């Protein structure tokens, strides 16, 4: 059972995502939510770093938070798994512990 | 009359900040001062098109700025590099804006009498 890492701040405002990825292990999952979903935009300069991390961790993004910010599914980095609130619940059950990087 | 420059650097949905900032912009404009608004860093996301209108707790921020024209706000400015670094272009924004390059920013900031960071 891997760790679930929650990243809720934009990479433009906080180093939370980078700091989280430095510490995430092979069976871990990362969930981008709230402002954290801005990290999922594929044309951003930070995208290659997130894409590179997907070799060892799975990256998820909360779809309702993407929609609220006007980020369409086509704008998201390939390989990032989009989930609804039900998927968030499921991730919470399948992982332990849960760490918030805010 | 003073030249006011409001600098918006934070993304949508981080508390009540954006509404309070807009109140300030409109108040200053209502007193016939010269007002410009600059979207810098994550502030460019405030203008992003396509923000979902369904969630009452996360209302889109972009339409709020459409009203600024009525208040004689002289210009909405966006830093080109802030857009590009975030994978955005002018076509992703809800309003026509004026753009400025990072290398011009020092001069741009220096032309204001009062800079309000919000």
Regions with little confidence, pLDDT below 50 for 5+ residues of chain B: none
Q: Which radius of gyration of chain A do the C-alpha atoms yield?
A: 12 Å
Q: What is the residue-averaged pLDDT of chain B?
A: 90
Distance between the termini of chain A: 23 Å
CATH domain topology of the domain at 19-100 in chain B: Hypothetical Protein Ychn, Chain: A
Count of DSSP-assigned helices of chain A: 4
User: What proportion strand of chain B?
Assistant: 15-25%
CATH class descriptor name of the domain at 19-100 in chain B: Alpha Beta
> Residue ranges of chain A: pLDDT <50 for 5 or more in a row?
none
Q: Sheet bearing the most strands of chain A, described?
A: 5 strands, parallel
The oligomerization state is: heterodimer
- Determine the strand fraction of chain A and express it as a percent band: 15-25%
Q: What percentage of residues of chain A falls in helices of 4 or more residues?
A: 25-40%
Count structural domains of chain A. 1
Write down the overall geometry of chain A.
globular
Q: What's the count of strands of chain A?
A: 5
What is the topological layout?
The complex is a heterodimer of chains A (102) and B (118).
Chain A (H helix, E strand, L loop, with lengths): L3 E4 L8 H8 L5 E4 L14 H7 L4 E5 H6 L12 E3 L1 H10 L3 E4 L1
Parallel strand pairs in A: 1-2, 1-5, 2-3, 3-4
Chain B lengths: L2 E6 L8 H14 L3 E6 L35 E5 H6 L12 E3 L1 H9 L3 E4 L1
Parallel strand pairs in B: 1-2, 1-5, 2-3, 3-4
Keywords (chain A): Transferase
GO molecular function, one term (chain A): transferase activity
Organism (chain A): Candidatus Methylumidiphilus alinenensis
Entry keywords:
heterodimer, A: Hypothetical Protein Ychn, Chain: A, 4 helices, 20% strand, B: 118 residues, alpha/beta, Hypothetical Protein Ychn, Chain: A, five-stranded parallel beta sheet, 3 helices, 25% helix, DsrEFH-like (chain A)
């Amino acid at each position: 059972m891997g760790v679930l890492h929650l990243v809720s701040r934009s990479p433009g405002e906080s180093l939370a995502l980078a700091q989280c990825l430095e510490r995430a292990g092979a069976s871990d999952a990362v969930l981008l939510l709230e402002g954290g979903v801005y990290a999922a935009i594929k044309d951003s300069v930070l995208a290659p770093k997130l894409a590179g991390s997907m070799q060892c961790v799975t990256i998820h993004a909360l779809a309702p938070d993407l929609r609220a910010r006007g980020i369409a599914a086509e704008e998201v980095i390939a390989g990032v798994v989009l989930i609804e609130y039900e998927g968030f619940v499921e991730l919470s059950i399948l992982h332990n512990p849960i760490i918030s990087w805010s | 009359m003073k030249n006011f420059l409001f600098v918006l650097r934070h993304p949508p949905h981080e508390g009540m900040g954006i509404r309070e900032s807009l109140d300030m912009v409109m108040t200053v404009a209502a007193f016939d001062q010269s007002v410009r608004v600059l979207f810098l860093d994550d502030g460019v996301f405030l203008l992003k098109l396509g923000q979902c209108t369904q969630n009452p707790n996360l209302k889109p921020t972009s339409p709020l700025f459409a009203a600024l024209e009525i208040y004689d706000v002289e210009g909405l400015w966006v830093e080109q590099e802030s857009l590009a670094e975030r994978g955005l272009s002018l076509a992703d924004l809800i309003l026509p804006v004026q753009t400025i390059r990072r290398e011009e920013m020092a001069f741009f900031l220096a032309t204001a009498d009062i800079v309000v960071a919000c």
